[in-house]
Write a structure and sequence with these properties.
Length: 265
């Protein structure tokens, strides 16, 4: 029996002729295609949302960080703080906090700014978790659909209704392979988008560290410029006659008291 002979009854039962349609793929894959399709919608939605959110103009561009550092060098803390507060990006909030704590000790300011920057980056990365979940769940759903289809196929073959009807086995295998392919088709783009967006977020973290280091250097330079010049004391010139050295006089040791000599009785 040829493959065409085996698949003709399947086509007669309403199996899709053309697999180019997404709806036909969902119908052919069985009920497990519904959660896989939902995973694809979630992956697309969060990928687009995070891609738009991670644009340099919204996170804080490298040029903006350089402008804040230049404003500190020219106008001091107030100049840099005014520019940093004019934006609402995460980078602007981090630099504004560093300038607000400019008078505090370096270690305290560094710890406070570091904690605040970590919270900002963690908050930005929260919406990447759905992509990670889709990456992990979609292949498992495809595998579940595969097992489900194989169970149904062999169940039909094992029953009396499946005797002499190998097309039922082909139908089950077809459904199983469809769900597996769909799960992988959703999972692979999801993991690619996740790592791409994660790389953007890591690059933003490195950019924050660079600007914070440049800002500390600018603050030190500004303080050095505003610090008063040290007063240099002039050494006194020696007098014309010169200073007379006092001669050390030898002290005469005290004369010991005479001890009376007793006479013999």
């Amino acid at each position: 029996m040829t493959i065409q002979t085996m698949t003709m009854p399947l086509l007669a039962q309403g199996a899709p002729d053309d697999l180019e349609s997404m709806f036909e793929l969902v119908v052919a894959g069985g009920p497990m295609m519904v959660p896989i399709a939902l995973c694809s919608v979630v992956a697309v939605a969060y990928s687009v949302e995070r891609w738009l959110r991670f644009r340099p103009g919204l996170l804080g561009s490298r040029r903006f960080g350089r402008d804040v550092v230049a404003a500190v060098r020219e106008g001091g803390v107030e100049g840099g703080l005014t520019l940093a507060r004019s934006k609402q990006s995460p980078l602007a909030r981090i630099l504004a906090l560093a300038l607000e704590r400019a008078d505090e000790p370096f270690l305290d300011r560094e710890k406070m700014v570091g904690d605040f920057a970590s919270n900002e980056i963690r908050r930005l990365g929260n919406n990447l978790r759905p992509l990670l979940l889709v990456w992990l769940i979609a292949p498992l759903l495809g595998l579940l659909g595969t097992v489900w289809g194989m169970i149904e196929a062999f169940g039909e073959i094992a029953g009396s209704a499946g005797i002499g009807r190998p097309e039922l086995l082909a139908s089950g295998i077809y459904q199983a392979l469809t769900t597996t392919a769909a799960g992988l088709a959703v999972s692979i783009p999801a993991v690619v988008c996740y790592h791409h967006l994660r790389g953007r977020l890591d690059a933003f973290g490195r950019r924050v560290e660079d600007h914070a280091r440049d800002l500390d250097a600018a603050l030190r330079e500004r303080r050095a410029e505003l610090a008063p010049a040290p007063v240099v004391e002039r050494s006194k010139a020696p007098s014309a006659n010169g200073s007379a050295h006092e001669a050390q006089t030898a002290q005469t040791p005290p004369v010991p008291a005479s001890v009376p000599i007793g006479t013999e009785a």
